Amino acid sequence: MAGSIAGEVFRVSTWGESHGKGIGVVVDGCPAGLELTEEDIQKYLDRRKPGQTKYSTPRKEGDEVQILSGIFEGKTTGTPISMVVMNTSQKSADYSEIAGYYRPGHADYTFDAKYGFRDYRGGGRSSGRETIGRVAAGAIAIKILEKLGVTITAYTKQIGEFSCRPDFSARENIEKSPLRMPDLEISAKTEEYLTQKMKEMDSVGGMIECIVSGMPAGIGEPVFDKLDAVLARNIVSIGAVKGVEIGAGFAVAGMTGSQNNDEFYINESGCVKKRTNFAGGILGGISDGDDIVLRAAIKPTPSIFQSQKTVTRQGEETCVQIKGRHDPVIMPRAVVVVEAMTALALVDELFLGMTSRMDKIMNYYGRK
Amino acid sequence: MAGSIAGEVFRVSTWGESHGKGIGVVVDGCPAGLELTEEDIQKYLDRRKPGQTKYSTPRKEGDEVQILSGIFEGKTTGTPISMVVMNTSQKSADYSEIAGYYRPGHADYTFDAKYGFRDYRGGGRSSGRETIGRVAAGAIAIKILEKLGVTITAYTKQIGEFSCRPDFSARENIEKSPLRMPDLEISAKTEEYLTQKMKEMDSVGGMIECIVSGMPAGIGEPVFDKLDAVLARNIVSIGAVKGVEIGAGFAVAGMTGSQNNDEFYINESGCVKKRTNFAGGILGGISDGDDIVLRAAIKPTPSIFQSQKTVTRQGEETCVQIKGRHDPVIMPRAVVVVEAMTALALVDELFLGMTSRMDKIMNYYGRK
Amino acid sequence: MAGSIAGEVFRVSTWGESHGKGIGVVVDGCPAGLELTEEDIQKYLDRRKPGQTKYSTPRKEGDEVQILSGIFEGKTTGTPISMVVMNTSQKSADYSEIAGYYRPGHADYTFDAKYGFRDYRGGGRSSGRETIGRVAAGAIAIKILEKLGVTITAYTKQIGEFSCRPDFSARENIEKSPLRMPDLEISAKTEEYLTQKMKEMDSVGGMIECIVSGMPAGIGEPVFDKLDAVLARNIVSIGAVKGVEIGAGFAVAGMTGSQNNDEFYINESGCVKKRTNFAGGILGGISDGDDIVLRAAIKPTPSIFQSQKTVTRQGEETCVQIKGRHDPVIMPRAVVVVEAMTALALVDELFLGMTSRMDKIMNYYGRK
Amino acid sequence: MAGSIAGEVFRVSTWGESHGKGIGVVVDGCPAGLELTEEDIQKYLDRRKPGQTKYSTPRKEGDEVQILSGIFEGKTTGTPISMVVMNTSQKSADYSEIAGYYRPGHADYTFDAKYGFRDYRGGGRSSGRETIGRVAAGAIAIKILEKLGVTITAYTKQIGEFSCRPDFSARENIEKSPLRMPDLEISAKTEEYLTQKMKEMDSVGGMIECIVSGMPAGIGEPVFDKLDAVLARNIVSIGAVKGVEIGAGFAVAGMTGSQNNDEFYINESGCVKKRTNFAGGILGGISDGDDIVLRAAIKPTPSIFQSQKTVTRQGEETCVQIKGRHDPVIMPRAVVVVEAMTALALVDELFLGMTSRMDKIMNYYGRK
Fold first, then answer.
1. What number of other Cβ atoms are within 10 A of residue D204's Cβ?
2. Model ipTM value
3. What chains are in contact with C, requiring at least 3 Cβ pairs below 8 Å?
């Protein structure tokens, strides 16, 4: 239970440190018969990888994935899929200095408190590179979801004071913005702000929104494994996330029941629908067939180039100036991680949901 | 995996419906040798139970717990602790009408979508009464935490527009407010607002803050079982919660790294401390020894007495007017549930954390 | 993880001590829509309960089950099913003496070694009464299996030197023998032997065989969750079991490949079948569509009335003479427990098996 | 839950097919601070690898392990340890023929029944090569156990009719026998028998015994996670195992209570001991401090070179003659796998056992 395995029936087991030999993941529980190639994985890793814009570290990482098992003749076999990205650009020498002190906002101190020592090179296991395994596994989950008619879109909704306006036209513009902010006018203004903050050797926080379309109603397990609870866990497990909300989210604190209750109606196809979606597509922890909407608060990159006060491992106060290559804003790359972690939760719950009804189980096994 | 079991080594398995014979929980993994009586459990159930103030349903429920197993001569034996609260006040007749339609904001529709039918009496398994099992199990977890020097305090931080000011003096005032709002001046104003909303046959949302003191540094597992991720899951699994945040939470979206990074220093005892606590006591998913601070957004009670538009199970639109006994505000009672779910997460992670270091394991087993 | 929860998606959580207030189980993951009454459970508990013949303790226990949750209008709702049997016949006074010493062959010493003390009344949690929860949960599993065309039959195959001959006609005779030995001629001889051993104040061991018919091919997960591995775990988890074997079992040690390999052929319906069944219905951990055959070795009841040497909790050697009511042979009652534990494993694997193939998942969710 | 992850807190996730790119395992939950090198792993893989004697396939496989993560400066960091053995000697061409039919005694048919198709090259995931991941993970577990004073020894106890006599002197002779049969006189006779069977193009079954010394008393969780139950699951999960027994095992069927009960006494150091060990070191599912003794029945290698009748995927009967390289006896190599799977179970239960007692938990966290 050292915490690097997620999921109940679609299970992913990630491994790897920033400056170790590589980063990878094993997916156990992928059904047989899914067409899967390294390209299917690579396209998500490419969206995540550094050096895509001037707002991410210029570190050259190919981040090329290899699939080592679980595929035969182009299809998944139902056995574990092992995927690896070898590290190529790490120079441990860069990091010898940080071995001795605790960077503010990082996990240096807490890893030492937990384990007695740590792999200090580039953050080790708490590096952002750890998310490679999540994204690789998430790419498979997304492919499964597509087969089931479910699509996931995440984008940068807010950076600093700048938020996308509600009337932006989302999907087609996301990749047009270097910040993955689909409101392109706001995106341009945010770039100016960001350039200023980079000059100040500072970093910025923000918010990511994720929208799931096509989710069938009836998915999610009551009580502890509510769909929103599992989503919340998955999202908050991403390093920089400090909060998560579903639907109206924290705004519900200021609402009344008559405002917040979504009215049901019957649409032209005779289906039960809601006029509004303050619920964010989940009622009682179970999907209601509407879009699932969640948002994640992302803290500013803790690695900033300003001088900061901190302490050494030996218990002395000191001043540090972090060097190296660090993103001043991680939302554009974290968007892909949010999609991946959302997909992992959804696939797991969709699979678990197959045993909810005796009649459907009997039907599955050819009984009536 | 129908979702009513939580925890990895301190595991709770809850059961029961609002209008079934009873509600209960089995705790598997409680260590042997903890003094435990029914009174230890009852005092938390009493804080949770209805009818304590005019802001909660006047339903008369004794909610008396019986411990059926796992205790011998006043102490836990290490075997499962089964606790039951029999339902006494349920009149199913009250609910026959709601069988046919879907209440807005409730899980009626999604339960039907998932299972094909539902126990419609008082919400069945999705009733707030389901939290009795959580609170009973949480009471044991809280007792374990106390032995380890960890205390948990939750309170109502916000209702509607009204928020406790940061300088309130917290713990001693919480129980003085019928809303469990320790800023008593604000609490009084909120009561007026609430009275008004009750007249309007409406309900209100709010926010609960939970503070954990005394948590040792080094607890929490990296990656998927980060301490904040497990807390987030547990908190969002509470029925009405639509968001959770840790430390600075959603405010990080508007912050810069230089603002948000907590500076480390060495206190007079030579310990590593942080000058601020934007991290909320968790760095990299591992406790840093500081107070853990989390907040949960609670939606307004969906049961309101105004007429609402909705649909029937037969797919026809209709108007409904909910009757019965419903809290116009659930924060005062939900505070206890937030404490319980927090405690369950902390105990589980504290227990898992015992296997993090080889030297400590060897010491435990008398090896050197 | 105190060990009283079993299963991955059809999960059972048992609780209760021999002389506590009751014994029970919570089943989480039972699908909705299964007709279920207390009688469905009671008939299995009645087969398990003491006092049915002169070979089991004459203790009067009604062992009447109550279902406290998870059923509505005669059907399972998909939410946890809590079942309780209250203890009625326990007189703790009987057991005060055994508090001070360790009964040979019992778990008295190991419970003390693990927990520091124990509920010594009648074995506490390690009593045979603990199996009530298993049998109650197993009764639900058996009912699910029946819906899927799977039947389970266990019987006493051996007691001491006496074994059923291979050509007995099984099912119809099992309940005709007080020992649940369907070879009635052998059963009669065994009764004589048993009567003799009872006079000698001794107990006897034996073997139970369990046969599963109707299991579809393709169930079981490769590697660690092989169908036989999960069955083995479940069977060995029954208190008195000291060994388990599948198909030819231990006889394979003396066989050659040419003897042990089951030849495949095509039957008249065009299906793949095996001419023999040394595999016991499982190949590579996955069911092959043939009968699943397993056997469990059951040790003699450790409670015997002869004087035995042992030690006290204080570390002194002593002689003990166990009193009370104890079965001289437990196979006839354990047969029901073996069926239950087999059923729990099968249901769990059948449910897990629903996510093995992408095409079937798409079909389940109405995609093509 | 596709079954390739084992353990609760010390968790291993294996992957890889016989003729894929490689075989590997991720260990999540290894404590920090254990010295670990590739040599520590390699020595167990070398004992397992083919080509060591004339009784195993002459296939040239280096089976060289690489550790890709989780180690820093020679010690485990507490984060996942990823280990890989790349496949080097596989020629898929060898296997094109077997794609079309089902080998008797193999999992070909059941994989097809489960997944709809299979990786037919060399058995794919059901190949004996899959055990490389188990042995690599087991090597770490064995190293942890050594630190805790626990040692594991397995050896070939029986092949065909030939069994080691009880008075052999075990450990020092095991590696002197090419069959890992420490009774060297019997080993020599067995070699003759085996040579004869190889001439007959046949294979042989056998039995492995495994002895655990130094296990502290009090380990194992009652009810479903009994130490013997978890061991049974782990052992039966090894491909060729058809039965497992603990202590007296199946012999208990013919014993009486007075024979089978192990008498307790106090040894010269004042410790509770048993005069005999029919219990095999486990009472009530909890270790009693004595040697743990278990035996596994191993079926004859199903790949034999004689002509065998079987069926094709298209449903036609056929005759097949298996070619290639196959061990006529797998016990000598399986011994290492039995040790590994035993070690994995023990470490997991030792770690889980750390939360059994409140006083020890308080002590761990520095409370009194």
1. 31
2. 0.97
3. A, B, D
